Amino acid sequence: MPEPIDISPNEDNGVLKEILQEGQGDEYPPPGSKVKVHYTGTLTDGTKFDSSRDRNEPFEFDLGKGSVIKAWDIGVATMKKGERAMLTCASEYAYGKSGSGPTIPPDATLKFDVEVIGWKCEDISPKKDGSIERQLITAGEGYTYPNDGATVEVSLVGKHDGKEFDVRDVTFTVGEGSEQNVILGIDKAIEKFKKGETSKLIIKPHYAFGSQGSTEFNIPPNATVEYTVTLKEFERVKESWALDTKERVEQAKIFKEKGTGYFKVSKFKLAIKMYKKIIDYLDSQKDDDLQKEIDALILAAHLNLSLCYLKIEDNFEAKTSATAALAIDADNVKALFRRGQALLKLGEPKDASNDFSQCLKLDPENSAAKTQQALCAKTLKEQLQREKKVYANMFDKFAKMDAQREEIEKKKEPNVMSSVGEWGKEDREREPSEFEKENPNILLLNGSGEFKDM
Description:
single chain, alpha+beta, 15 strands, disordered C terminus
């Protein structure tokens, strides 16, 4: 059996490791990964104070995040899958002078028999659904990260089925990576990188090339890809809270210009992002000297958002944005027209017609509004015809039911019992009519001569 070795960073014998069972492969769990282990903890005199094996429940924790004692973050990071080792942990790497509850005394040296069952890479996807996983290769430096809008310089090596397909250095704006053909998974992940960091990213289709794949890179549909990414340099943008009102207005103008550029080349989702930023930056701002400019920018943002949403057929959001624009300018023809379009597509032609009518009051020569108004009238007429047909069928059914009632009354025997509405023998034993067979839930006579719904 190998001799225990000192694996403490300061080489102070704070964490000694003795391998009890060799592991598999040559990989170690990276920082941030979720590691699954079995363990038994004892004092130096052999007293057992805890064991996952006794509970038959493996223990999971995030490596390197300080969620366990320091000795574990150090020791488990040196273990391969399937490896079993004895970690002897000095008190300053365990529970220190305070100990832990009644089982671990102050200043106690602890021994842990640990077996690494396996691990999962760190999940850094926005919804924590495993769609973007990170395996740290080289830790970065400092304490800051790129933010949305930051300029980043990265090195990329993309692989699929073991073959490299995208090897390059590229500079892009965080949140707008698609402009440089950078997939969304990298654009999202880079906000969690430090300068100088190199990590392997496992990216599921939704954040990679989706159901379409990529003909340029020869990536099939619904493919999971792997990228090794190094963040070489980055320059953060000032957060909105750090800007005064004048600076916010200037930044909003830049967003508007970018949004218009994206709209012109049909990149509607990026345009939407830019217009939303205008609202985020300015919505709470009040300034007597700049208020007209602020209101004009917010109005333009809502109007442009409504148009973008119509382009991607998100009609509910188109209606919402147009309504927000009308809250600023109730007689805005563009807002009325776009809300009318959204309402018509949402199946609300009457409300849409009201908006187009208001458009024409404000701009009688608006040919587009006239066309849409005519379409509303046609849609309303078709709706009315469908409703008439439904009601006509309903009335026909009621008429047949009335005729059936009369037929039942005519067939009754004119005896005393029948005259007070009781069933005669023939009524009880007769075959149901064709109408009754077709309509088993029609109203039937009850014992008092009244009809009841079965």
